[in-house]
Each structure stands twice: as structure tokens, then as C-alpha cells.
Amino acid sequence: MFDEVKRRKKEEDKMRQEGRMPPGQSLTLKFPVLHYGPVPSIDLATWDFRVWGEVEEEVTWTWEAFSELPRTEVQMDIHCVTRWSKFDTTWEGVSLRSLIDEGLIKLKSTASFVLQHCEHGFTTNLPIEVALSDNFLMATHFNGEPLTLDHGYPLRGVVGAIPSRRDLKDVYLWKGGKWLRGLEFMAQDRLGFWEQAGYHNEADIWKEQRLVRG
Ligand SMILES: Nc1nc2c(c(=O)[nH]1)N[C@H]1C(S)=C(S)[C@@H](COP(=O)(O)O)O[C@H]1N2
Ligand SMILES: [Mo]
Among 33, 35, 77, 145, which residue's beta carbon has the most beta carbons within 10 A? Predict the structure, then answer.
């Protein structure tokens, strides 16, 4: 127990020294579970993934079809607005960028924002350039294992910071929707669930954009 406390502190100091700790955050060695509402029950036989809005053709993939899509692995530091950060997490899944590069999703030139749609109506919005960056992934696996139900099985959006890529926009983890079921491309921005509840729309972790100030 005491060793765990010391290890946490040591890791945290290291991350601060390396400039990887955003303001107001602290390091956790655990993986907290955070969401609003109940955990959904999942049936892969009826699960589907829909892409619609500002696209040339709408797409619906079954779980089987989704599993055939090109796969990407990425290592990121993830930062929750409730002030915990977890470093060097490895995610595997499907990158939106690769789907577009391979012509599997064809965006209209009007597509400027994307809304992640999740089970039970949860949504979260991102500018298209953030969703197309290397630090946004639709993940099926965490640290080499399939996601657990609590963390978004079978598919979740995940956004984090890639330490060597400070050129990218880094946003808080709520911008990754667990139990992801589709993407809606939009010409105009529309606020997601937490954004409507008063979380900052931009959510930049380095600028500490947590809440909209009243
Ligand atoms: N569907 C859904 N996804 C969600 C949320 C939610 O309430 N519902 N909360 C977000 C928040 S605030 C965080 S910090 C992360 C937490 O992911 P974790 O439970 O895997 O740590 O999920 C995000 N995705
Ligand atoms: Mo969060």
C-alpha cells in the first residue's frame, strides 16, 4: 500500500518534469470508471455502427463488418476533467482518418464537425480536424485486451495526448464516447451531452477549459 503511494508520487513527478502533466491534474495508477447513467447491455448480433450526415453515402456496419476495418494502435495520455490523468495507455481500434483515406467514408466538403452517438443517447461533439487527428481513435481494445463493459465495450471513442505530438489539439476524455454506435457529420457545430451541461465546448487540457464560466 505504502509502496503504491510512493510509486504514484514518483511517476507523477516524472510526468510533471517531462511536461506531460496538464495544469490542475494528478496522476492515477488506477483506471477510474466515469459516466452518466446506466451501463448498457450489448448484443453483438444486433449491434450496428452508422455513419450519416454530411457524407456522400450513409454507411451501416454490422459488428462483423466493423471488425474487418483497417486497424490502428496508438499510445496516449488520457485526462479526465475530474482531474485524474493516466499515462502511457495503449489503444487499438479504427482511426477515422484511415477510413477516410481508404475511401470507406466519403465526407462532403461541408463536413466540419462530428457528433459521436452512443448507447442511451449520449453524444459528444468535436471539430472534424480533431476527430481526424492521430489522437482520436474508435477503440475496441485497451492495453491489449478487449474493452470491459464499464469502459465502453465493444467500441468507444478515445481522445488523449500523444507526448511526442504537441502539435495536436489535446482535449479532455469526455470527448470520447463510450458504447459508440455512430458518427454524424455536421456542417454546423452542435453541443453534446456534457457540453450542454456546461462543460467547455473546446475542452483544451493545456488551457484548462473545463467548464463554461457563467
Ligand atoms: N457514453 C458515455 N461516454 C462517456 C461518458 C458518459 O457519461 N457516457 N463520460 C465521459 C467521461 S466524463 C470520461 S472521463 C470518460 C471516462 O472513461 P472511462 O470510464 O473509461 O474512464 O468517458 C467519457 N465517455
Ligand atoms: Mo471525465
Answer: 77
